[in-house]
Amino acid sequence: MRDETCLAEGYLMHGGSAQPMMVSICKTRLTQIRAADLWEMAADY
Hints:
By secondary structure, the protein is mainly alpha-helical. The protein has one domain (2-43). It is built from 2 helices and no strands. It is elongated.
């Protein structure tokens, strides 16, 4: 799901040199959000 979301986001720069960077930034952002969510869930236990 993360990868597909980021590919769609990167498509805004389709064919441009910034497309891979946009995908990487998106993956990093979504991974950080997910990790924070998991840490929060773990803190509740």
